[in-house]
Design a protein that fits this description.
It is a single chain. By secondary structure, this protein is an all-alpha fold. The chain has 2 domains: 1-83; 85-192, no CATH class. It is built from 7 helices and no strands. Helix 1 packs antiparallel against helix 2, helix 3 (59-78) packs antiparallel against helix 4 and helix 6 packs antiparallel against helix 7 (158-191).
Length: 192
């Protein structure tokens, strides 16, 4: 059932971005067209995984991912909300939380269910937080590289922008990491 929802939601996002891309291309707004076509690629990832793999999908994670794409690509870049200052910070906070949830999903797939009963909640907390912060760092490396090698302006505010983004990523990841640690502690206490 989750696979069908992933296909439907991803297809809707891809079609929306295709429509925007064509519209902005026809109106000679190349930047917005490029962002929209980038949205097609990003939105197609869960769609292609649903169609061509046997992965089990975490539907809330996929919906969160698509909403994140909508917020960053459509509202942020196409509608220009990044220009108001707070939207970029908000999106980084959300991305930190989203990457932390990916860390939880990865942890649950990599660690055997029985072994989880013996792992410290602090280790779960540190893993989830580290995963989120690492994701934020990789994104900032991407922005820096784009600016250096392709003369883009991804780091609009330079070092200050980078640090605010990393702090927001960390805070988003911290909220989810605390929740993951408390949840792991609760499960551990329930077993004892």
């Amino acid at each position: 059932m989750n696979r069908k929802f992933v296909i439907v939601f991803s297809s809707l996002y891809v079609l929306f971005m295709v429509g925007l891309g064509v519209y902005y291309y026809m109106h000679e707004e190349s930047y917005k067209a490029l962002v929209a076509f980038g949205g097609v690629l990003c939105g197609a990832i869960p769609l292609l995984l649903a169609l061509f793999t046997k992965l089990q999908f975490n539907l809330p994670l996929i919906i969160s991912y698509l909403l994140f794409l909508l917020g960053s690509q459509y509202f942020g870049s196409i509608l220009g909300w990044y220009g108001n200052g707070w939207w970029d910070t908000f999106i980084h906070f959300i991305s930190g939380a989203l990457i932390a949830f990916v860390g939880i999903a990865l942890y649950e797939r990599l660690v055997h269910r029985e072994a989880r009963n013996h792992i410290s909640p602090w280790l779960v907390f540190l893993f989830v937080l580290s995963f989120a912060v690492f994701g934020g760092v990789l994104w900032e490396i991407y922005e820096f590289s784009g600016d250096q090698f392709f003369d883009l302006t991804l780091q609009g505010g330079g070092n200050e922008d980078t640090m605010i983004d990393l702090i927001a990523d960390t805070l988003g990841g911290l909220v989810v990491a605390i929740w993951a640690g408390v949840r792991a502690n609760y499960k551990l206490l329930k077993i004892k």
